[in-house]
Structures are given as structure tokens and as C-alpha cells.
Amino acid sequence: MELTIDWLTQFDGLTRLEPEVRQSLLAKSTVRRIAAGTVIFGPGKPSESLLLLLDGRVRVQKLSESGREIVLYRVEAGQSCIMTTAAMLAYEDSAAEGIAETELQAAAVPLNVFDETVARSPTFRNLIFKEYTKRITELFQVIEDISFLRVDIRLAQSLLALSRGSAEVQATHQRMAAELGTAREVVSRQLGEFQRRGWIRQSRGVIEILDREGIVRLAAVTPE
Amino acid sequence: MELTIDWLTQFDGLTRLEPEVRQSLLAKSTVRRIAAGTVIFGPGKPSESLLLLLDGRVRVQKLSESGREIVLYRVEAGQSCIMTTAAMLAYEDSAAEGIAETELQAAAVPLNVFDETVARSPTFRNLIFKEYTKRITELFQVIEDISFLRVDIRLAQSLLALSRGSAEVQATHQRMAAELGTAREVVSRQLGEFQRRGWIRQSRGVIEILDREGIVRLAAVTPE
DNA sequence: CATTCACGGTGACAACGTCACTGAACGCGG
DNA sequence: CCGCGTTCAGTGACGTTGTCACCGTGAATG
After folding, report:
1. A42-51, A77-86, A131-140, B157-166: which has the highest mean pLDDT?
2. Cα–Cα–Cα angle for A157, A163, A169, nearest 5°?
3. Is the pLDDT of residue B84 over 80?
């Protein structure tokens, strides 16, 4: 169950890790499998390790008191889920949660090992700070998109992102609405329009992409 | 001009700093005065030190290509401007900028000293990670507010925040619009409504608060 | 004193959010 | 296989917010 494979090679920033740090990290961390749907961190679920994602995808989202939700960003394989370190610091009020969208394989670095490694290794430090910066930059972009882009454009972008090249997106309108932080009805109407234009075909829980080019064109619009 | 006062006492997280780290930080950092209006960091202005704010206030905002802007958060005295470390990492595309809203007094910690201190001092590490987490948490909140709160409520909140207890807010409608990431016309209409209710009195560039209680009540609304 | 410009007010309309309600598709127990 | 509850999706009406075009005012500048 808990392997000690050399997972460090999967992280761009860690390939040139100092040898003794490398050994220490491998020895003191555990590689874990986590089932799809598991809540990694969130209100009432403080985590006690930093997760370095080897495989799978984590969705970080925020739920408002009114029950609505919005996706903040995703963590992909080869990235670290820095909010798990944040959750360690007990910021309960954030009300953000991380959910395994797929089955995960992740290296769990216990808090004390994390701290020790940050102290010892410039390479590791660099990786961590880069991750933080990257997330913050992403959040900046989310804020800009929400504030200034039309929903049809954001919906098109979201569709392309979620499809990952495939011709089928498995998602309900409710789910898409959460992606954009808007209302389901808005998504229904917009997808209806996309369908009328022949860009997609819809069935219950599935959106099939017929004309990717059309969606790409809309997604690329920068209204001036 | 460059003092070597013991500014470390002004940071909650640094009062119990390890003695030798304390000396080192004081010796290798410089305390600087920065004029109001100065752009601390931003596109094309990479910074080469971490700024620890001793006095004054920094506004961090993002400008879209279309020229509109939105305030992301503020850095107050006693906090560190972590985006200066991010800017060091050359994330040019972020297009966020930090502006001195008032005259600043700040301790500038050069990049190499920052890195060295993170390595040496658990206390300093803790402070830095707490700051990052705090900013991220704030950004989460901004996203939620933008997505789910009505603008009149957000405007009321913004007015209270900017007034800082005073009865007068010096701000144009354009400025308030940037605070909320909305359009000037919207602010004009809402402030007009506030005035009709007797909550404020407006004159060119100034908003005078007449009935703080009324504004507070609106700001506290959590529509269910 | 004349011109320019930042500021703010407004009406019309488009885009988006909310509410209430509808029916269709699915999942499950009997 | 049927009935039933639940999830999902579609729609009309209406309120809120964003956009566009335009105007008047007062401040600053030469």
C-alpha cells in the first residue's frame, strides 16, 4: 500500500534536489492512494501533511453560507496542494475545501518534515514559494475573469478546460454553474444557445462537443 | 535616512525572534521611506526585496487589458508585502501592481537575506507562511463577495472600510468602482440612492457619512 | 478669460441573477 | 414491471447589474 518509489522525479522543481535531502524526504513521507470524491481538506478537516500530487486531480472550491459554490482552482499531478499547509495553520474561516476529482496518488509530507525540508533545502524552498505564487497569480486571474468577462465566454473556456481534448464533458448544468460561480439557469440558457448554434449536443449529465472550433473562437474573444 | 531602529518589535510574529537571527536581519535590511503614490511592484517593475511594512498602507490591484481595475487587497502596517517576493520570481503575466496609498516606512529585506532567514529561523518561516495563507484566504473571500453579494451591500462595506471611523471618505466614483470591480455608473446610482436615504452627502471627490448606522445595517445583510 | 478635462448624473438597453414552476429522465423498492 | 421520489433541465417574468451614449458642472491650466 505505501510504496517508496522515487516519486521525486515527477516534480520539475525537485529533480535536482540535494541528495541527502532527497533521501530524507523519501524516507519520511508516505505515498498514499486516495479515493475519488474524498475531501482532502476543508472546514473541520485540518490536514497534517503537505500533499504532493503524483497522479489525479484536486478541485479546490469555496462554498458560501447560502449553499452556492464556486471553483477556485485545480491541482494537477506534479503540483503541490499548498492549501493543505494552510489548513494546518487552522484558518477555519476560509471555508474552502479540496476534493479529489479522480483517484489520487500523492506523497504526504508530514508538517514537521515539511518545515525541516524548507529549512534545509533551497531547492525545496524555491518549489514551495513558486507554488504559492502560482496559486495567488491564478486567483488574481479568476477575480479578473469573474469581474470583466461575459459568462458565455467563461463558459466556453470552462468547457474546453474540462473536456481536456475529449469530445465529451460529463457535467450537469449545476456543476458548470459552480465552475463559473453563476446560477444554473444561466448555464442552461447559454448551453441552449451553444446547442442552437450546433456547437454542442446535450443529454442528461453530458455535454458533447460537436464544433470545437466555434467554442474556441468564442473563448478567445477579448471584448474591447 | 536609513535608520537601524529595532523595527522588529512591530511585527507580532517576530517579537520572539531568535537573537542571532534578529541581529542579522536588522544589520542586513534597510528601513526606507517611500512616497505616497509610488508603484512598489508591478509589470515591468520587478522588486528585489521583501517589504515589511512599518507604517502606511499599500493597495494591491489588478488592471485588465480593457483598462478597468479592481482592488485585490491592502497591506497594512505590521504586515509583509509578500507579492514583492512573488514579483522576484518574475511572474510577469500577473499584471497586478502594488501602490503606496500613503507615505510608507518599510523594512526592505534583500532576496538573499530573505532566503537565508527562512532557512535559519522557524519563527520567520512561520510568519511568512502565515502571511501567504492570509492573503490566499482573503482572495477567497474577495471571490465569494464578487460572485454572490449585491453591489449595494459591497459598496456599503467598502465605504465603511475606507472611512476607517472617520466621517469623510475621499474618493471619486471611479475609485469606488475600482474597489468593487464594477462600473462607475453603477456606483453613481447606488451612492445616489444612499444619499436619497440620508445616509451620505456627496460633493466632488468626497463622500460624507451622515448615518453610519444605516450603512452598517445594509453592509451586514446576508440575503438568504 | 477661454479651453480643457475630470467628475458625476441619466436614460435606454443588454446581460445576468432570482424566483417559481414545469416536465423529463433516472434510480430504487416493491 | 410499476409506481414513486429525486435529480436534472427548460422557461417566463422580473429585478439587478453592466454598457453605451451623452450631458452639465466645476476645477485646473495656460
Report:
1. B157-166
2. 110
3. no
Give CA–CA dist B4/B116, Å, rounded: 20
Residue B1 has pLDDT above 60, yes or no: no
Nearest-CA distance A209 → chain B (Å): 28
Strand D nearby residues, CB < 7 A: A 148, 172-174, 184-185, 188-189, 191-192, 202, 204-205, 223; B 150-152, 182-183, 185-186, 190, 204
Q: Are B144 and B190 in contact (CB under 8 A)?
A: no
Least confident window among A3-17, A30-44, A125-139, B170-184: A3-17
Question: pTM of the predicted model, to two decimals?
Answer: 0.90
Q: List the single protein residue with the shortest CA to C1' distance from C17.
A: A183
Task: Give residue A185's pLDDT.
Answer: 97
Within 10 angstroms of residue A112's Cβ, the number of other Cβ atoms is 11
Which phi and psi (to 5°) does residue B180 adopt? -100, -10
| Contacts (Cβ under 8 Å, ≥6 apart) of B128 | B80, B82, B118
Q: Do A86 and B136 touch (CB under 8 A)?
A: yes
Contacting residues of A for B64, CB less than 8 Å apart: 144, 147-148
Cα separation, B186 vs B151, in Å, equals 8
Among A93, A91, A103, A119, CA closest to A40: A103
CA distance B109 to B11: 14
The sign of the CA dihedral A201, A73, A96, B73 is negative
Residue with cell 500613503: B102
- Cβ separation A119–B129 shorter than 8 A: no
Q: Cell 525572534 sits at which residue?
A: B17
DSSP state, A195?
A: H
- The mean pLDDT value of chain A amounts to 89
How many beta carbons lie within 10 A of that of residue A36, not counting itself?
A: 12
> What is the distance in angstroms measured between the alpha-carbon CA of A150 and the sugar C1' of D10?
22
Helix, strand or coil, per DSSP, at residue B221: coil
Q: Which residues contact A192 (CB under 8 A, 6 or more apart)?
A: none
State the pLDDT at residue A224: 47
CA-based angle B52:A128:A97, to the nearest 5? 95
CA–CA distance from B134 to each of A90, A156, A202, B113 (Å)?
Answer: 11, 32, 41, 23
